[in-house]
Structures are given as C-alpha cells and as structure tokens.
From TrEMBL:
Pfam families the record matches: DUF6037
Name of the molecule in the record: Uncharacterized protein
Source organism superkingdom: Bacteria
Disordered: annotated segments: 39-65, 252-276
Length: 276
C-alpha cells in the first residue's frame, strides 16, 4: 500500500482489487492499523483495563455482527432504536436459550445484553462498535469470573482442554438476529429480567406519566435511581433529556392498574425530540 496515506484510499484500492463483498470490518481496521502503525484500532474502556480475559487461542479479537447490523438498520427504518430477540446455542447435546437486547439510542459504542434464559441469572453486556463501512462488531473476550460462570451454565467442565471459544456465543447471537422482530420500541415488560431487576422498584414496569420539577419550590430534581430506570426502560436519550430538564418518570405495578396502559409507542417527555 505504498503511497497511500489514508485508510479510505487504501480501502478503495482493496475494493477495486478484490471486490467490496469480500471485505470485512477486520480488513478495514487492519488497513487503518498498517497506515497508523498502531497495534489495535480501538479499545473500549472495559477492554483497555488491565484485566484477565478469556478466549480461544487464535480467536479473532473482533467478531463481525452482520445480522445484528441489518436488524438495527431495519429497526431504525421503522423508527426504533432497540433490537430484542431470543436465540439458541447448542453445546454438546444441550440446547441453551439466550435473550439478546441491543440498545442503540445514541452513537456507538452500543450495549448488547446477552442473558441466559432460565434460573442461572448469567448475563453479560458487550460493547458494540461500528466499523468505517457501517458494520457492527464486538470483542468476544470475557473477564475470568463471567467466563467461568458461562462455562458452568453451558455445562462445560474444566478438563484441562483448550478454552471454549467465547466467540461462539457472539456468533450465535448474531445468527439469531435474522429472526428479530422489527418494531418502533420494546415495552419495559418485555426487556430481559436481568436488566429490569437492577432498577428501583423493579416490579413497577407500567409507565404512567412524568413529573416536571423545573418549577418545584423545594428545588427537587429526578433522583439518580429514577434516571437509571428511565434509561434502562425507555432509553438513554430520554434519560439524558430528563436529567437536563429536571423530569422524573412515574411507574406503577401493572397488576395494580384497572386498565392496560401499555402503548405501542415509546413514551417521551414534553419537549423531547428524537434524534434524526
């Protein structure tokens, strides 16, 4: 690639030589690395910490997510920002089910929650970034405790054999995204329990309104726990708006309501405008 000083020019050369259909996200990053003389293009905060991670020897540092990319594009075309679906992973003779939730209200990196369906309570949040050609990708690496817990859930013993490749879980999640239902928003009661259980008053998932504190005589503001719940159940973009404007979300136990207040549209506070 002598004479090429930018990644775009080098990628154009590769596309003309090999065809765009053969280029993956990792090829784009390798091109940038060569031109910048850097060993890695990007590390998110969780990956850059000095912490022990586990993956299969020789496993690629990045896993391309073409089906999740397509599912998000289709969802955004319908006015949504979240992709929720269930997928399966077969290990040995056992079939395991996982819930997957991609939250993409803001710019990358996005959060991808993968949670085992059952009583194990296992879950992990992956940081999903976007390559220069629009492809989403994530690192399959897991920290020691999360990796050991996953092996236990999958029934994989510690027999001294080489480590189980963690990229298989991400690849299964990506393959399952082809069945993701396109919709404008994911109602709170459908969000995986792992994500709902860690908010205040977790049993209250029925949205019933807003409290505007701007003219409050006691100068009260939305609490941190309320903003966290707003972010988890309605979106980080709405939570950021509520923090700036001093607005709290109100919730109730669905069983206590005399009528079903669930809506097919995402509730938004007064004055909120969705990003184009």
């Amino acid at each position: 690639m002598a004479g090429y000083t930018s990644a775009d020019k080098a990628l154009d050369l590769l596309e003309r030589t090999y065809g765009p259909q053969k280029l993956l996200t990792r090829h784009c990053y390798l091109t940038e690395d060569l031109l910048k003389s850097a060993p890695r293009p990007h590390l998110n905060g969780a990956q850059s910490r000095k912490k022990e991670y586990h993956s299969h020897p020789g496993e690629p540092a990045m896993t391309d997510l073409p089906q999740i990319t397509d599912a998000l594009n289709r969802t955004r075309a319908a006015g949504g920002q979240r992709v929720l679906y269930r997928f399966t992973l077969t290990v040995g003779a056992t079939r395991h089910e996982f819930d997957s939730l991609l939250t993409a209200e803001n710019d990358p990196p996005h959060d991808l929650l993968i949670a085992h369906v059952g009583t194990s309570g296992w879950s992990a949040i992956y940081q999903v970034d976007q390559g220069p050609r629009g492809m989403l990708w994530a690192s399959a690496l897991l920290d020691r405790s999360t990796y050991k817990a996953l092996l236990a859930v999958l029934g994989i013993g510690h027999s001294g054999n080489r480590p189980w490749p963690t990229s298989e879980l991400l690849q299964a999640a990506d393959a399952g995204a082809i069945h993701a239902k396109v919709r404008a928003w994911v109602p709170p009661h459908e969000i995986p329990r792992t994500m709902r259980n860690e908010v205040e008053e977790a049993d209250k998932t029925a949205f019933i309104g807003w409290i505007d504190w701007q003219d409050d005589r006691l100068h009260r503001r939305p609490t941190a726990s309320n903003l966290q719940k707003t972010s988890r159940l309605l979106g980080s973009d709405i939570a950021a708006f509520c923090k700036e404007r001093g607005i709290s979300s109100r919730w109730a136990d669905p069983a206590s309501l005399t009528r079903d207040r669930r809506s097919g549209r995402r509730p938004t506070p007064p004055g909120f405008q969705r990003r184009p």
